[in-house]
Write a structure and sequence with these properties.
By secondary structure, chain A is an all-alpha fold. Helices cover 71% and strands 0% of the residues of chain A. Chain A has a domain of 187 residues: MetI-like (MetI-like fold). Chain B has one domain: Rossmann fold. Chain B contains seven helices and nine strands. Chain B has a five-stranded parallel sheet with strand order 6-7-8-3-9, sandwiched between helices. Chain B has a four-stranded antiparallel sheet with strand order 2-1-4-5, covered by helices on one side. In chain B, strand 4 and strand 5 form a beta hairpin. Classes of the chains: A mainly alpha, B alpha/beta. The structure holds adenosine-5'-diphosphate (ADP) and magnesium ion.
Chain lengths: 286, 204
């Protein structure tokens, strides 16, 4: 009976199960690919990407999936290494910006004045174009992975801060928090024991969803020459170098690394959105 | 022990008229009191004022001739009608209970709480089972006065009697004060030594 009904009905337990399983499989697959990329990139030693002047400017082939560059380096290996670096910087920036968001939103919840200051800060940071601010911060910190990471982190805490701020406000009006105060519990105790467990979902999802932004911004800032140094095997560096050779018809130099970067970003987005679906408190008990 | 309200007047900011006007009330731990009123007459609001939950009101509430403490454990505890609202959905029941005090096994079984419930989340227990926890939580050894606001309204008759019996036993044992708020006249008559009608003391 239920099996014959193929329509996506929320009353059909099979459809529900399928949806959940589908979501889990999507998360599993995207996380799996991301982990593979990071792990394999860790095994690539930059020194091993040797120049080979016998195989310069080769278009993609079975030997070199992504072709080779003007120094005969295998583009697939370079891209993989670059993606690994992107994920690392993305992780650093996402975690750092989530920490900023957590600290600011909790500070804001302690009193009205600080809350005003923080919401003003959020608006201020949102009104300045990200890329400009990242470049400024990155340059002032001396560039490199550190500068880019901090730059991206300092520009991406705003949305999570907004979410957490609203969420914390709502939790603080709940009866169980008020009762906790009546039991004489301190504000810090309540923040740690009552509020934090209720916002972990938002924190996890928020952190993962910063990843794609972090990776894209890192690549673009590096591409523009304000980010990682040209010695680093970053995607941004690969892309900007490739620009010089595009005119000579070496289309694969930019296409594959660029495409890989897009796919990587997309995977993070898919993983984040699906984890959000799974962890969504409104469907947690189903 | 004395919980005293003097000239209490209160109006919700969104409302036009006063809900409570010049209420005078004195409660102690010698008699189990019942407060009766129609639904919507302001019983819960008065409870919140008496227990220090609502703090912006006219008049004075004093406990043993001193104002209610602003910080620390509140000696006047309120038991709510809806236990699920006063429990963090992410907490196991043993943490919910432990937030207030360490309840010994004897008391647990007296309140009919099964061991296996302690490792569950609030969503995994029925209203009656949750209310046992909510009640027991309010019965912290530091509690001096309990206000039970329609605490058994949503329970069946048997559970209602069970819970009230256990509470009253402990209240007597510890010499606490107890105010039962209800719209159920029969319940108040069976449980309480004396009763007050809200409409008699409310001068609106
Ligand atoms: N937070 C609130 N804001 C505005 N009005 C309220 C609020 N809470 C209760 N009221 C109103 O106050 C009146 C008394 O409510 P309540 O004290 O809960 O009565 P009771 O417990 O006797 O049923 C009701 O008319 C209700 O609509
Ligand atoms: Mg009421």
């Amino acid at each position: 009976m239920a099996n014959s009904n193929n329509g996506p009905s929320i009353y059909n337990p099979f459809a529900k199960l399928n949806l959940r399983t589908k979501t889990l499989i999507t998360i599993g697959l995207s996380v799996f690919i991301l982990v593979i990329v990071v792990i394999s990139s860790l095994f690539i030693n930059s020194g091993d990407i040797t120049t080979n002047f016998q195989a310069m400017n080769k278009p993609p082939s079975f030997e070199h999936f992504f072709g080779t560059d003007w120094m005969g380096r295998d583009m697939f290996t370079r891209t993989l290494k670059g993606l690994g670096l992107s994920v690392q910087i993305g992780a650093g920036a996402s975690i750092l910006s989530s920490l900023i968001a957590i600290v600011l939103s909790f500070i804001g919840s302690t009193n009205r004045f600080l809350d005003g200051v923080i919401s003003w800060l959020v608006d201020l940071f949102l009104s300045i174009p990200h890329i400009l601010l990242i470049i400024l911060i990155s340059i002032s910190l001396g560039g490199g992975a550190f500068g880019v990471t901090v730059g991206v982190a300092l520009t991406h805490w705003t949305s999570l801060t907004r979410v957490l701020r609203a969420e914390i406000k709502q939790i603080k009006t709940s009866d169980f928090v008020k009762l906790s105060e009546r039991f004489g519990k301190s504000k810090l105790w309540i923040a740690r024991k009552h509020i934090l467990p209720l916002v972990t979902t938002q924190i996890i999802v928020g952190t993962i969803l910063i990843f794609p932004h972090a990776i894209m911004h890192e690549a673009s800032v590096t591409f523009l020459g304000f980010g990682l140094s040209p010695h680093e095997p970053a995607i941004g560096i690969i892309l900007s170098e490739s620009m010089k050779y595009l005119a000579t018809g070496n289309w694969w130099l930019a296409l594959f690394p660029g495409l890989s970067l897009l796919i990587l970003v997309l995977l993070f987005d898919i993983a984040g959105e699906n984890i959000k679906k799974i962890l969504d408190p409104t469907s947690a008990n189903e | 022990m004395k919980l005293k309200a003097t000239n209490i007047s209160f109006k919700y900011p969104s409302a036009k008229n006063y809900l409570l006007k010049d209420i005078n009330l004195e409660l102690d731990n010698k008699k189990i009191m019942g407060l009766i009123g129609d639904s919507g007459s302001g019983k819960s609001t008065l409870c919140k004022i008496l227990s220090g939950y609502v703090q912006k009101y006219e008049g004075e509430v004093s406990f043993d001739d001193a104002p209610l403490p602003k910080k620390g454990f509140k000696p006047v505890q309120l038991i709510y009608q809806h236990p699920e609202k006063v429990m963090n959905p992410k907490w196991k029941m043993k943490d919910v209970l432990g937030e207030s005090w360490d309840v010994d096994e004897k008391t647990l079984s007296e309140f009919g709480i099964q061991k296996s419930w302690l490792t569950r989340f609030p969503q995994e227990l029925s209203g009656g089972e949750l209310q046992r926890f909510s009640v027991l939580r309010a019965l912290n050894p530091k509690t001096k006065f309990i206000i039970a606001d329609e605490m058994t309204t949503m329970l069946d008759a048997i559970t209602q009697v069970q819970i009230l019996d256990s509470v009253l036993k402990l209240v007597k044992e510890r010499n606490m004060g107890f105010l039962l708020v209800s719209h159920d006249m029969d319940l108040v008559d069976t449980i309480c030594d004396d009763k007050i009608y809200l409409k008699d003391i409310n001068n609106i």
